Amino acid sequence: MKLDHTEYKQRNIKIWNEIAPRYHKRWAGVNQGPFQSTSKLVDLVNVKKDDSILDLACGTGAVTKKILNRIGNSGRVIGADASVTAINIAKKWNGKKSNLDFINIDAEKFNFNHKFDIITCQYALFFFPNAQKALKNIRNSLKKTGTLGISVHGHKDKVPFFSSILDAITKFIPDYVPPGTPNLDRFGTKKSLYDEIKNAGFSKISIKDFTFSYSPGNFEEYWKNYLKYIAKPIKEKVDALDKSQRSELKQAVKQNTIPYTKRNEVIVFPWQVLILTAKY
Fold first, then answer.
1. What pLDDT digit, counting tens, does each position of 53-98 carry?
2. Record's Pfam families (predicted)?
3. CATH of 5-155+180-213+271-279, one of 3.30.980.10, 3.40.50.150, 3.40.50.300, 3.20.20.10
């Protein structure tokens, strides 16, 4: 099924406006799970005090905050996101600073007169339906000496926090993810990520592979929190299952978590993250 980009973006923005507070509380605001990589991204793009930096798809401001800690009162930082709710959280969390602005933009349509030293984009490239368009916008907004820094989740087999549930749930709810939606791990291998960035005209591409550990607690806590934190349209599909289907689904998910469950019944998932840097 062909993806309607406008409809997909509108749906995505609506979802992010709903879940941003929970997302910030559980992940971005406390450097948990994949956000253990945030400081590594900022290290790898080599932030300097006078740099002008765009944090694209900044979400609730995790990367923005790390960048600000590096540059202090010098340089310039702009956090940009499609979700107004996420931006409002980022503004509050980062506080008012003379060298910080937040703007609401579409990553595939933005245009700046100003050129940046660095553009970062953490856990968002896979959301952009036309990633090439977004990447070309990024390149056009960089100085000729500029640096791009991108973080993505690894392939689903390397991020069982997601796949333990999704592999099971899609058997019970085939349209759990709307048809045509971009896969969250479509850039989850070094080759797929490298090829996408290369095709957009970047050079000196380097990709580093990190694996972090994340424990969601025991299985009951993992399952309960998944249902608590998912977006409303998705939760409605799970709630529509009858009691026996829901019980079967839960058991299928539990089976998938067994390889990551320790003797004390606590689950510890590996979480692969790829961090790419490239030059204009």
1. 999 999 999 999 999 999 988 899 999 999 999 999 999 999 999 9
2. Methyltransf_25
3. 3.40.50.150
